[in-house]
Design a protein that fits this description.
Blueprint (H helix, E strand, L loop, with lengths): L7 H17 L4 H7 L1 H6 L10 H23 L3 H11 L7 H6 L7 E4 L20 E4 L2 E4 H7 L2 E8 L2 E7 L9 E2 L4 H14 L27 H5 L17 H10 L4 H6 L15 H15 L3 H10 L8 E4 L12 E3 L1 H12 L3 E2 L2 E2 L3 H7 L21 E2 L4 E2 L5 E5 L3 E6 L4 E7 L10 H32 L2
Antiparallel strand pairs: 1-7, 2-3, 4-5, 4-15, 6-8, 7-8, 9-10, 11-12, 13-14, 14-15
Length: 472
């Protein structure tokens, strides 16, 4: 006899509550993921029915126990953890996503990166540009207004020749607010690692990460080189599907939300293939780079970034990192920065790591960051195993038309086109990011290319007018 089980949304919430209860009763997150009866019953497959009455009754009894434990936990003073868990579960809901992305430090633990010195001016160009009405995507016209709306755009800035050609904020966002970077933070982490190598804190990127982080011995990262980790080629098995509630990336998110330590989660990951053979996107690879950076410099990522970047780039606002229970920064996606300061970082890389005559990030490191030096890093057909279908370097994406991109989930972008001295930044809170996979990323790239072409045509027209004016 078949009994209808609870709906999928109830399963997800019950799993999250179960995880919370395990933390409250001092069961480690790793043990929870392995031994939790409720989760084993569902095998992380998201099924929404149980084929026998006994299984359904066990779910009911377990859920009741979870509620009782949760209530007890609240009496123990776990309101803060519950709030973080609720925020994590509802982080990407349509009516909450923008507010969360602009105020991550109101929910999660964070650490400020202090700015210092004079602000580097980004003046408005005399000739501002108007956005085009539409652009072509896969042979069909796409209205720009529809694209900006459907991708949940919060801010868009176009910087060319050190002047702002366009700047606009949406959905209540403003120039002073700091926006979550998500995976754009990976490119910042890469920059800091390059500085650490230049300063001699790291002997060689060919060294195994376990030379610096012994906690990873016996894990999937044991013996893997820093370079392979940096090029998302660690060989570690990992599911980065944000649309799958039970994926590794979402399990990690719930652990982080409950103030769990990221290093223990990283150390629990296993080897899936030979390192250096496949560009398989694993956000925990970047977290390993952060662990290497901290061990090598004997400083927090925040302190190192403050000295090496934020005190030198003339930024307008402090940044902040989200941190775990041990104070370790979430370097794979927890940076929060203003739109203009993202543009300043893009300008740093546009100028090959140089800022007003000072080499901030080693020039060769920037060039290597944008170099696909192995066949498995070259652009490939899109699929879940490969990723966006673009090439990959040192934590930077490399499309095929001389562009470079820092990319974050839910449509965060720093787009750099060196031959036009151009940086475009887009912050977004796209609740439909995963429907379908990577569509909005491809649309965004075509939008940026359309803007670049418009600027190029505009400059050509201006030059033509000037030439005719000078002709007798």
């Amino acid at each position: 006899m078949q009994f209808a089980g609870p709906p999928l949304s109830t399963i997800k919430l019950s799993h999250a509550i179960c995880n919370m209860a395990c933390v409250m009763t001092r069961v480690t997150q790793t043990r929870h993921l392995i031994n939790c009866y409720y989760c084993e019953l569902h095998s992380f497959n998201g099924v929404d029915s149980i084929d026998n009455a006994d299984g359904y009754m066990k779910i009911f009894k377990w859920s009741l126990l979870v509620v009782l434990v949760l209530a007890t936990g609240l009496l123990w003073g776990n309101h803060e953890r519950l709030s973080r868990l609720y925020a994590a579960v509802t982080l990407f809901e349509v009516d909450k996503i923008t507010g969360h992305f602009l105020n991550m430090n109101q929910t999660f633990n964070s650490r400020e990166v202090q700015r210092s010195g004079e602000v580097f001016p980004l003046p408005y160009a005399e000739q501002q540009i108007e956005l085009p009405e539409r652009f072509d995507f896969e042979g069909e016209p796409l209205a720009v207004s529809d694209f900006l709306d459907s991708t949940g755009t919060n801010g868009l800035l176009i910087l060319q020749d050190d002047e702002i050609r366009f700047e606009r904020y949406f959905q209540g966002h403003n120039a002073q607010q700091r926006h979550i970077s998500w995976s754009m933070a990976k490119s910042f982490t890469s920059a800091l690692l390059g500085v650490a190598v230049e300063e001699g804190h790291i002997n060689s990127i060919e060294q195994p990460v376990t030379d610096y982080v012994p906690i990873l011995k016996g894990s999937g990262y044991d013996g893997v080189s820093i370079k392979d980790v940096m090029q998302m080629s660690s060989g570690v098995e990992f599911n980065e599907d944000y649309g799958d509630f039970y994926s590794d990336i979402n399990r990690m998110g719930r652990i982080f939300a409950m103030n769990g330590p990221l290093d223990e989660f990283v150390a629990s990951l296993a080897r899936g293939r030979e390192p250096g053979t496949l560009n398989h996107y694993v956000s925990m690879d970047t977290q390993v780079l952060g662990m290497v950076l901290v061990a090598a410099t004997q400083r927090s990522v925040t302190d190192y970034m403050e000295e090496k970047l934020w005190s030198k780039l003339g930024v307008e606002q402090n940044a902040y990192w989200l941190v775990d229970s041990k104070g370790m920064e979430m370097v794979f996606g927890g940076l929060n920065v203003t739109l203009r300061d993202y543009a300043r970082f893009g300008r740093l890389y546009l100028n090959l790591g140089q800022w007003n005559g000072e080499q901030i990030v080693p020039r060769q490191w920037v060039l290597d960051s944008w170099t696909m030096d192995a066949p498995h890093l070259l652009p490939k057909a899109k699929n879940k195993e490969i990723g966006l279908g673009w090439g990959y370097g040192y934590q930077w994406w490399i499309p095929q038309e001389g562009e470079y991109m820092a990319v974050g989930v839910y449509n965060q972008f720093i787009y750099i086109k060196p031959d036009q001295n151009l940086v475009i930044v887009k912050n977004s809170a796209n609740p439909d990011y995963t429907k379908p996979q990577n569509l909005s990323n491809d649309q965004s790239l075509m939008f940026f290319r359309t803007l670049a072409q418009q600027l190029k045509d505009s400059q050509a027209d201006s030059l033509d007018v000037a030439t005719r004016a000078e002709t007798p």
